[in-house]
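Input.
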Amino acid sequence: MNFIDHLSELRKRILWSVLAVAIFFIPAYAFSEQIFDFLMKPLIENLPEGSSLIFTRPAEGFTTYLKVSFFAALIVAVPFILYQAWRFVAPALYKQERQIVIPFILFGSLFFMLGAAFCYYVASPPAFKFLLNEYSSDYVKAFPSIKEGLSFFMALIFGFGLVFEFPLIIFILARVGIVTSKWLRQKRKYALLISAVVAAILTPTTDAVSMMLMFVPILVFYELGIWVAWLFGKKKVEAPEEADADTPFP
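Output.
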């Protein structure tokens, strides 16, 4: 395909993804109040005594519930969105490389959900506790708005969801021969710096606690990615001494 054909195909995949989100949005809005209560639980449980969630504009409650419905629909549509992403890149792959479509969708969805669950149950409670209580006093109280609280939490959830996709990305790149475990080991020092930058970008605040909660999983998944590349990477015919050197160990 030429450049215009690629753009046309990309538009098609984006439109299908948007349609899937729109379809899931309808039932999500019907349960938006319950979804909001569930999502805000880690924040509410860590509010200082005497604090509560508020909204400051007449339409803020309505627009916040629309946001909740959109985020819920987007999360549910992740498998279909991954499938559309695969359909976009599949024409550039060989037949044997296209056979990983099912693992891509299955594990892509699973890792994203694991990242969201890790954020909800592990990372966000201490982050909220620190942010909401560290600077509260007798005359300074935290009264986060429902709009800002939801946006902050959704940014964390999607950030962790994307971070947990790293092993899958390495798996795909290793299977098609773009990266190897040896190359990843050689780039460790650069990965450390890039991981810190990525954690700072994906973390919606500038506090060190939230950043470290995302920085550490990125480093862990980088090391896991080295093992993934070693186990599942595309094998090349190499000299014996070069083949022995391509291991996941330092």
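The chain has 13 helices and no strands.
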